[in-house]
Description:
The complex is a heterodimer of chains A (about 270) and B (about 270).
Chain A: H1 3-26, H2 28-53, H3 65-80, H4 86-95, H5 98-102, H6 108-139, H7 147-172, H8 174-177, H9 181-195, H10 206-212, H11 217-225, H12 233-264
Chain B: H1 2-29, H2 31-58, H3 67-87, H4 94-99, H5 104-107, H6 113-119, H7 126-139, H8 148-171, H9 180-194, H10 204-208, H11 215-227, H12 231-258
Amino acid sequence: MSRSRLARSASKYAAIAGAAVRRALAERAVLAGRVVFLGAILFIFSRVWQTVVGGGAIAIPGAGKAELIWYLAVTEWCLLSVPPFFLSIEAEVRSGDVACRLVRPVSYVGAQLAEAFGETALRLAVLGPAAAGFALLIAGSWPADPRGLLLALPLGVLSSVLAVLSMAAIGLSAFWIVDTSPIFWIWQKLAFVLGGLLLPLELYPSWLRALARFSPFPAMLWGPGRMAFGFAPGVALETFLELAIWCALAAAGLAALATRVRRRLTVNGG
Amino acid sequence: MERTRASRLAGGLRFARALVAMNLRASLALRGAFLLQAAFMVVNNLAFFSIWWILFERFPEIGGWNLSDVTTLFGVVASGYGLSVVFAGGVRDLARAIEDGELDTLLVQPKPVLLHAVASRTVASGWGDLATGVGMLWVCGALQPSALASTFLAVATSACVFTASGVIVQSLAFWIDGMQTFARQVWEFTLTFSLYPRPLFSGQISFVLYTILPAGFVGFLPAELVRAPSLPLAAAALGASLAWTWLALFVFARGLRRYASGNRIGARV
């Protein structure tokens, strides 16, 4: 592909992403809802940590009550920034509208990803400061070493990329099972549990922690989250590489899935 | 007059029974999808609950609550939520129905509009919630014959308050445009807060959890009734569910007076 064709192709997807950002900005209620939900979850778990930790510390190096709240702020920021766009793929497959999308001069999956990345970028930009604000308000202080939070930023972005790729694969499964919500529930709860969304993996029984490390979820949530426990560039780099590998695997899996979808496609209406 | 009221009530009950039967048939018509959704919801709930199990492995008590207490709370709330979305699945979309003028087709029928709107839809995954809830209540011994009456009352009142609070917040769409997202969020918050132990919340937040977000009546109070049954607790749970139900009927009826048709052309079969 020549450089000019590549640039034209990239500009199409950038335009789709830009349109998604504008649409998400227009739907302020949804964004505001996510912000309030983030605040509510941080508040609830601040109460949990207040009750179980009290003034003391738990058996995680560098983690007191404030750091645990910041941990949760980072993990929730990563997860809540990804829009549930698998539902729109599912709706298009159900209605047959996918047929209309296929005749456009852009890849169907590519367009879906561009839309999702656009909206995710906006959510990351909005929810990041909101999460930091809530964490500061609820915890009453920054983490003991706030430099770790700077390392959490690129990890959070890469974590969202992995979540977007996973959600696209969940959406494409609609070509086989029509209702994709059950698959999403399982993926989401695996992320909750194996990723350490609410509780750092250090608190898990060792067998469960070992099991979790075989999945992408710890790199996705625990990795960025534990940056709240201190400034650890080595650990951050390790997490970054893990995330990059999982992203590459997810992208390859998604490409294979998209090829199978094209082969299988039968229009359900439209 | 009394006879008319009694016969209207009997007619309403017959209609509700017919809607329930229709929803059950609709769910079972796609048996594979139904079973898949219900089974996945059970797995989903158990995965969420495992967070509590992990936490209690580390810390035996949270504000005086142990794993068995949280299991009871989860069991009551999951059963109540399951009952609500299985038998009144239309509550979730009530604001959208009001905004889109979908009540037009219900208003011309000689049946209670609210009952028709909420009970003519069902959520298949709610059976998974119900199964999880019943399973958890069984695990914590709340289904023993001696405890059955208080457990049944607790679950029924939890479902009533949850449904009623949904109707109230969704009915705000009669007065304010663009309520769908907000209404759903408020309803989700009620569910979210009701799944955490009562001792975590004190002071002003406690007031909020018994008024604006009635998580106290969906979770804490019914769970307390199962943990330590007593007549005052039973009366409080029953009174709260009746009060919330009355409030929901009142708000919906007042809103319906303001309802403007969507001029939508449609058929209901």
